[in-house]
Design brief:
Helices cover about 40% and strands about 20% of the residues. It is of the alpha+beta class. Among the domains are: about 85-135, Arc Repressor Mutant, subunit A, CATH 1.10.10; about 155-305, Regulatory factor, effector binding domain (Multidrug-efflux Transporter 1 Regulator Bmrr, Chain A), CATH 3.20.80.10. An 8-stranded antiparallel sheet has the order 3-8-10-9-5-6-4-7, with helices on one face. A two-stranded antiparallel sheet has the order 1-2. Strand 1 (about 145-150) and strand 2 (about 150-155) form a beta hairpin. It is globular, with a radius of gyration of 20 Å. Keywords: DNA-binding, Transcription, Transcription regulation.
């Protein structure tokens, strides 16, 4: 989470402080910067194999390159170049696990002219080459995992979860691409100094990817917030009721989550003696992917129970 700007947020209520007064002009300026960041994030996700140079992204943002890279880093916590490398590597990881495309095709779709340069970048993020990663099938499982046939059974328990409220943005399309919505939500929270109200991040999945065309899949990317927070413009509230849930803890890169979901529904749920409730399942992210190595990411898959 990034609480950048929190100091100014407190100072703006001090009488006579002209630098932090919340004038209409200041608010318009912050909203404009937020819009530019979100536009660039969308562009990176939509064009992983395109020109994602600093000059091109500055053009997309409609801002001088001399200032744009500073604005992007201040509002997202990473440089444009690192964001491009990370998003390309993530898209490639999903394609490696979820498709049978040759590595050369994955490399090209991820924006790399040759498999060698792609392999170097991929190894930097995932600690292994594309071929090794694909052969593993799912990334970095917990050392305490149990194998059930060809499924990996991650530690799972039935737990009573508290009610949660999300400040969310709707994502329509392939579930692995929900990261773009999360980055847009993050831009809103940074631009409006809302991170002090954040209690974590979660995604809600309303569609079944086995029954719904990818282009029509419906999900929500959100930040967990207090009930008392006034919902910021551009975001909407999503309520997750309290109650019993099957909770699977998955360690490793997000590209392995599809296999973990399958293990939840074909392994744990049939054996636990409980029926799922008529509510959407969701994921809760326990650490920040921009600050955490892929193998150390922690995700809770949560299925409401009747």
């Amino acid at each position: 989470m990034n609480a950048a700007g929190a100091g100014c947020n407190k100072a703006r209520f001090v009488t006579g402080n002209p630098l932090c007064l919340r004038t209409k002009e200041k608010e318009v300026s912050r909203t404009d910067y937020e819009t530019r960041v979100r536009r660039v994030i969308q562009y990176i996700y939509d064009h992983p194999d395109g020109d994602l140079s600093l000059d091109q992204l500055a053009d997309v943002a409609a801002m001088s390159r001399f200032h744009w890279h500073r604005v992007f880093r201040a509002m997202t916590g990473e440089t444009c170049a690192r964001a491009v490398r990370r998003i390309r590597a993530h898209r490639a990881a999903c394609w490696l696990v979820q498709t049978d495309w040759p590595v050369e095709i994955v490399a090209a779709r991820a924006g790399y002219d040759n498999p060698q340069s792609f392999a170097r970048l991929f190894r930097r993020f995932y600690g292994q080459g594309p071929g090794e990663f694909r052969a593993a099938g799912v990334a970095h499982a917990l050392p305490t995992e149990l194998t059930r046939g060809d499924l990996v059974m991650h530690p799972t328990e039935i737990r009573d979860l508290p009610a949660r409220r999300l400040a969310a943005l709707t994502h329509t399309g392939p579930f692995p691409e929900i990261g773009r919505a999360f980055q847009e939500v993050s831009a809103v929270f940074t631009a409006r100094n809302l991170w002090p109200h954040a209690r974590g991040m979660a995604a809600v999945y309303y569609s079944d990817p086995g029954e719904t065309p990818e282009s029509e899949l419906h999900s929500e990317a959100g930040v967990i917030v207090a009930e008392t927070l006034d919902m910021p413009a551009d975001l909407h509230a999503v309520d997750l009721p309290a109650g019993p849930h099957a909770v699977m803890t998955v360690k490793g890169d997000y590209s392995g989550l599809a296999a973990a979901w399958e293990a939840m529904y074909s392994g744990f749920l049939p054996d636990c003696g409980r029926d799922p409730a008529n509510r959407a399942p969701f994921e809760v992210y326990l650490n920040d992917p921009s600050q955490t190595a892929p193998e150390d990411l922690l995700t809770e898959i949560c299925v409401p129970l009747a």
